[in-house]
Please model this.
Amino acid sequence: MISATALRKIGDIGDGAQTARRFSLATQRNFSCEVARLAVRALHAELCLYPKPGLVSPVDSGSHTDMDAGTFMRSMFALRHYFKKICLAGWRDASFSQLKKLGIAAEAAMLKATHGVNTHRGAIFSLGMLCAAAGRARAQGTALTPAALRAVMLIRWGEELARHAGEDGSTPSNGLRVAARYAVSGAREEGALGLPSVFDVGLPALLAARKRGATVTEERIDALYTLMAHISDSNVYHRAGPQGAQIVREHAERFLAQGGTAHANWHADALHSHQVFVRHRLSPGGAADLLAACCLVQSLAALEKA
Ligand SMILES: CC(C)(COP(=O)(O)OP(=O)(O)OC[C@H]1O[C@@H](n2cnc3c(N)ncnc32)[C@H](O[C@H]2O[C@H](COP(=O)(O)OP(=O)(O)OP(=O)(O)O)[C@@H](O)[C@H]2O)[C@@H]1O)[C@@H](O)C(=O)NCCC(=O)NCCS
Ligand SMILES: Nc1ncnc2[nH]cnc12
Model:
């Protein structure tokens, strides 16, 4: 467990209350609009990436029969106000229960837009917490670096996120059912630990690919496969149990062992995985959400440099 003092040091966090007063309402709104725009762009980038094994893209619906790229577009459109609101809430030092209310309302907006299909529940949670952390960081005059975002999230909402992970939830979810049946962790534990799969797994993979000169598509494909190899995706367990999770891990590990997108044949290999996943109805939706979260963290850091 990282101590609060160490986290403060990483985040270089100043006196939040005093710094917050220096910003006008218009500044707060403009910043929140920009963060919301980046969040929607991150979801769009994930959707457009192809070939993603078993996942929906503009090319096809992968392992899904109840949704396509249009469903995701409607969901994204419905979520844009949520990302702005949760960023502003973070700026204004909202409690976790206030953030949760926004998250629950966003889930309802998503379900209305998609006629009951869960397109982005994981993203509402992880990208929502990142938008709130970005707002809080900016209010405190803290840079939007990945380390600072994580530190701000854990310092301000870490305890409540940990409590949320231990709660049963008012309505049973696929994630809770999977956790009870297979004793695997999922989105709740990710949140409680400050999104380690984003900061310690996906983001380093994106950066490593960028460093070797990969294209944007290639760096995102590498990050997606790295996430698939590392996380317990409750969507995969829910649909196909531990055997399905084993198939996902094997494909991801093989792809990465061959060098990922640095391998000349990566596109054909990814297409092959896509076909196998569709045959088994596998869909690593949790990894897809976390990839979008990585893209958001990357663009927030770039915003800082601009
Ligand atoms: C904390 C919550 C996210 C609730 O989580 P819970 O554990 O209760 O589980 P789910 O409701 O199942 O939602 C979790 C979603 O998170 C994604 N996910 C999966 N594994 C991981 C992981 N290891 N790390 C991070 N994220 C993960 C995953 O999202 C994707 O899967 C979607 C499809 O899922 P599902 O509906 O199961 O799929 P189908 O196969 O279509 O199901 P059926 O039709 O068969 O039923 C896909 O679209 C991706 O989005 C999981 O879905 C959070 O919901 C919560 O607490 N909400 C309340 C609001 C709140 O507190 N907000 C806090 C402030 S923001
Ligand atoms: N592209 C995608 N396909 C299926 N499920 C997802 N969950 C998040 N993104 C997804």
Notes: The chain has one domain: 4-305. The chain is about 75% helix and 0% strand. The chain has a mean pLDDT of 92.
